């Protein structure tokens, strides 16, 4: 994830954030990173305990160390006067293209490339300690990452040859059933049309890969060598023999750790200097995107079946930019740089900023993604796990394909049965001996030493032989049953957080346990309070596939719109399966990631937008092969305009945080429907020039636009952000005085080589009159594109009751349905008191 807002230090590590706390009390999912320019995060975000177990995000302690380093750099002048040494921090320096060193024939710059550049611009009196270059960038950006003092950074920032100097930051990491849930079949539809995407290379920027003994990364004998255009390779390192572990499936493996080491101020372990995944996150995401088919896969006896990636024929190239304590922006940018040079076709990026989304020119992930998309590479990125609050989505630039997370039609129920017969269905992956049908004593953690069930704080005398109800927060969800076990308890019931509504998080517990919703936990607590001898048991029901509850439903943790930086750009784009996803796992880490958990598994079940993102990455790979002439924007358009918004019961896709229908700011344009996306009828395309026009419309300066590699002057480019050719409409009424807003779009007919006529059908949001002109678009063999204009006019009477209202525009020729969501944001003065 990318840069973040500064916050007060509060320890952290890995994704179980409730174990270690969060640097930002209002952003419980924060793991690492801080951005100097960002605003504080709105308080309406999910509570700390909720997000902790989600996708094993990585470290936050590094964030606090970085903030301390930046503060130290800011105080350098007074320190120099006192005779103390200046501290160095890590920075990414964006250089004007005319001042960059020439690119060598092999296409990559060495760290020595900017040596003379630094010597020429930093005077001798500022040269101690000497700057240290970490990376030189030529493809994902133009410039370098380096260790600099505050004065050295300021000096470079004042140079006419430097566009920007951005502090390096830490960022966080945000299937057996999913192919059939998505309708993928080798005998029909997109999978057949793409031949499994055998000519496509999916690059995955993550924690690396653990291919040994993992059939997901085995190459079928019929799989030919990778496409000749791919220039990547597998490098070796400790515990990773590239020549032995790579094959025609895993065709690339590289690692980038200098940024993390610089931010931490010390060398990382030996495994960091290797593509080996010691965390599990990268192995999980890469196998989800393009893993080979594996029969009989499962997590113990859970979710048993045939595991296969979305694009089973695609090649996988991994770029390890994240470690046990997060992902440094400089490492991420280096991974983008190499992936672009290697000529991958799709990039899967399950990471992003914590805190308020930074300006695009300051977001190095957005900069790298822009350069990739400009080269024709689709960049699929996770929306983040900061839901359900408003404007929590990250990776929100229009060139990203931004993915939210929703459920499958599969559950792992663990029922709490009380002594009075009441039953509450929870969720669990406990794989040990069951408790049995007999009820045993039930206590509340707050009455026996620790309401959150911290290890060492529970009273063993009061816990022995009993089930303990534990609240969320402080320690990791998987650590709570372990604490109960160590105190002699028989099992644990874990309460979810209030903001998560009906969702509770599934965990692979080492002791009998299940997680229930906040409301159900409160009922269980009331039962304990009102009974003389409360008792219960937990019934583990394994894997249940069916239509109850309806699916898909939006995950409470999935980050939401509207777009914080560009409200007229609709985000997230789509949703995809991201709850309880089975995929390959590392052999170097346990499924709970607890040190005391000695289990090792080949497959693990975890949740998050990190899991939904590679589903879309794999589908994008299929589309890339089936429709090689399509741009990244066209592929995104096809996925958005063919997405569906109705669940298995016929209602609007639900939201687990509210138990009501979800909104487009949660589900995006809807849930991906791959087989429809291969033939969308019309597409909304966008080029690099369109994205530059978008940046100009935001009011960016020439230097800020130049960070993206463009020398175009915005002074000659007048335009509106809302006119960016996006497959959705987001309109912001800043006051009641703004009577109407007009937005323009251009569509291209890809559904037929002959004449076609599409007619518009409008579902207007509350409070708005929507006019489309023309109402019919006519195409021919020579006229493939048509423009139309939409006017959104405030109704003069009445008030709206919500701050956001939604609708849609659907173009149809009788065969294709091309649907774009409409989102209206209202000024406070327009919203009636509820």
TrEMBL record:
Q: Which SUPFAM superfamilies match?
A: Subtilisin-like
Record has Cell cycle as a keyword: no
Residue ranges of domain PA in the record: 441-524
Q: Which Pfam families match?
A: fn3_6, Inhibitor_I9, PA, Peptidase_S8
The residue ranges of the Subtilisin-like protease fibronectin type-III domain are: 723-824
Alphabetized GO MF terms? serine-type endopeptidase activity
Q: What sections of the protein cross the membrane?
A: none
Q: Name one GO biological process term.
A: proteolysis
Signal peptide limits = none
Sorted alphabetically, the keyword list is: Hydrolase, Protease, Serine protease, Signal
Q: Where is this region: Disordered?
A: 1-24, 267-289
Query: What are the residue boundaries of the Peptidase S8/S53 domain, all occurrences included?
Result: 199-647
Q: Which residues form the Inhibitor I9 domain?
A: 91-174
Q: Where is the composition biased (Low complexity)?
A: 280-289
Kindly identify the residues recorded as the active site.
206, 281, 610
The family classification in the record reads: Belongs to the peptidase S8 family.
Q: Indicate what this protein is called per its UniProt record.
A: Subtilisin-like protease
User: To which species is this protein native?
Assistant: Aegilops tauschii subsp. strangulata (Goatgrass)
């Amino acid at each position: 994830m990318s840069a973040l807002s500064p916050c007060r230090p509060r320890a952290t590590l890995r994704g179980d954030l409730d174990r270690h706390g969060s640097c930002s009390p209002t952003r419980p999912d924060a793991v690492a990173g801080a951005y100097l320019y960002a605003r504080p995060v709105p308080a309406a975000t999910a509570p700390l305990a909720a997000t902790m177990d989600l996708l094993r995000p990585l470290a936050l302690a590094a964030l606090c160390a970085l903030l301390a380093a930046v503060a130290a750099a800011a105080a350098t002048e007074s320190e120099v006067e006192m005779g103390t040494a200046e501290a160095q921090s890590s920075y990414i320096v964006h250089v004007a293209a005319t001042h960059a060193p020439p690119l060598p024939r092999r296409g990559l710059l060495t760290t020595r490339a900017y040596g003379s550049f630094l010597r020429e611009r930093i005077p001798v009196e500022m040269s101690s300690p000497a700057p240290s270059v970490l990376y030189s960038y030529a493809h994902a950006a133009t410039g370098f990452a380096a260790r600099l003092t505050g004065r050295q950074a300021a000096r470079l920032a004042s140079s006419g040859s430097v566009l920007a100097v951005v502090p390096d930051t830490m960022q966080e990491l945000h299937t057996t059933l999913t192919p059939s849930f998505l309708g993928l079949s080798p005998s029909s539809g997109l999978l057949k049309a793409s031949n499994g995407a055998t000519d496509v290379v999916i690059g995955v920027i993550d924690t690396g890969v653990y291919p040994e003994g993992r059939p997901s990364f085995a190459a079928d004998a019929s799989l030919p060598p990778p496409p000749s255009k791919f220039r990547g390779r597998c490098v070796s390192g400790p515990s990773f023999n590239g020549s032995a572990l790579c094959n025609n499936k895993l065709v690339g493996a590289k690692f980038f750790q200098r940024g993390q080491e610089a931010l931490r101020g010390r060398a990382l372990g030996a495994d960091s200097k290797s593509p080996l995944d010691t965390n599990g996150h990268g192995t999980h995401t890469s196998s989800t995107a393009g893993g080979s088919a594996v029969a009989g896969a499962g997590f113990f006896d859970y979710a048993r079946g045939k595991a296969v990636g979305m694009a089973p024929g695609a090649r996988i190239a991994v770029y390890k930019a994240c470690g046990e304590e997060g992902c440094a922006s400089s490492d991420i940018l280096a991974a983008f740089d190499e992936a672009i040079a290697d000529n991958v076709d799709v990039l899967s990026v399950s990471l992003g900023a914590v805190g308020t989304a930074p300006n695009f020119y300051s977001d190095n992930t957005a900069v790298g993604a822009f350069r990739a998309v400009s080269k024709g590479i689709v960049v699929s990125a996770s929306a983040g796990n900061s839901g359900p609050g408003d404007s929590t989505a990250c990776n929100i630039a229009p060139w990203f394909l931004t993915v939210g997370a929703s459920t499958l039609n599969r559950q792992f129920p663990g029922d709490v049965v009380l002594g009075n017969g009441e039953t509450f269905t929870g969720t669990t992956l406990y794989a040990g001996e069951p408790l049995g049908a007999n009820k045993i004593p039930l206590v509340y953690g707050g009455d026996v030493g620790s309401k959150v069930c911290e290890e060492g704080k529970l009273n063993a005398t009061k816990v022995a032989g009993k089930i303990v109800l534990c609240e969320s927060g402080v320690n990791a969800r998987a650590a709570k049953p372990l604490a109960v076990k160590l105190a002699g308890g028989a099992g644990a019931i874990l309460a979810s957080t209030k903001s998560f509504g009906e969702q509770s998080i599934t965990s692979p517990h080492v002791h009998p346990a299940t997680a229930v919703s906040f409301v159900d936990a409160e009922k269980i607590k009331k039962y304990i309070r009102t009974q003389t001898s409360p008792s219960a048991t937990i019934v583990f029901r394994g894997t249940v596939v069916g239509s109850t509850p309806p699916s898909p439903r939006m995950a409470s943790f999935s980050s939401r719109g509207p777009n914080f930086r560009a409200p007229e750009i609709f985000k997230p784009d789509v949703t995809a399966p991201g709850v309880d996803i089975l995929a390959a796992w590392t052999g170097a880490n346990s499924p709970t990631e607890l040190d005391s958990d000695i289990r090792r598994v080949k497959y693990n079940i975890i949740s998050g937008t990190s899991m939904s993102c590679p589903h879309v990455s794999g589908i994008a790979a299929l589309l890339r092969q089936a429709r090689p002439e399509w741009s990244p924007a066209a592929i995104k358009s096809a996925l958005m305009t063919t997405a569906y918004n109705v669940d298995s019961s016929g209602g609007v896709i639900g939201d687990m945080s509210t138990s009501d229908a979800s909104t487009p700011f949660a589900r995006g344009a809807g849930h991906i429907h791959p087989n429809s996306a291969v033939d969308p009828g019309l597409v909304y395309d966008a080029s690099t020039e369109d994205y530059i026009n978008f940046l100009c419309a935001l009011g960016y300066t020439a230097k800020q636009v130049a960070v993206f590699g463009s020398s175009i002057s915005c002074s000659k480019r007048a335009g509106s952000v809302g006119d960016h050719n996006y497959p959705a409409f987001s309109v912001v009424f800043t006051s009641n005085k703004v009577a109407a807003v007009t937005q323009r779009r251009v569509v291209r007919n890809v559904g037929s080589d002959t004449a076609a006529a599409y007619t518009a059908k409008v579902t207007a949001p509350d409070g708005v009159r929507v006019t489309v002109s023309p109402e019919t678009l006519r195409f021919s063999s020579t006229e493939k594109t048509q423009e139309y204009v939409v006017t959104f006019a405030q109704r003069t009477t009445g008030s709206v009751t919500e701050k956001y209202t939604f609708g849609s525009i659907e173009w149809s020729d009788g065969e294709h349905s091309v649907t774009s969501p409409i989102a209206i944001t209202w000024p406070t003065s327009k919203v009636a008191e509820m």
